[in-house]
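Late entry, evening session. Most of the bench is empty. Finally got around to the prediction I had been postponing all week. Sequence below, unchanged from the version circulated by S.P.
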Amino acid sequence: MLVPSPADGSRTERARRAVYLLLPAGRGTLAQVADNLGLHARALQRQLEKEGRTFATLLNEVRRELALRYLASPSHPVTEVAHMTGYASLSSFTRWFTAEFGTSPAAWRAGERAEDRD
């Protein structure tokens, strides 16, 4: 269990760190993150709201960062990236990724490789 001390930053930052650690293992839900921080889910929601955040927004931000990081590495197949960012299916991940970045994960990866060759 990851239970940061109160001096380790805002509740948002502690929750963000927990999501980074738990999401690739398929454990990035509100309940699981809250439990990891020693809180009830509703208590975590209230604390994030006090800081002007929601868990859904925080989760989406972490997913964006992890998806780009994992896709930048050719050693991770796109299907594996989908699972490591909390999606049960490649199609769900592809729809989310395309909505977020305006291109499919495979096209984004191909573009990154082309930039690396230039």
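Two things to note before I forget:
The domain at 11-117 is CATH 1.10.10.60 (Arc Repressor Mutant, subunit A).
Helices lie at 11-22, 30-36, 41-50, 55-72, 78-84, 90-101, 105-117.
Will write this up properly tomorrow.
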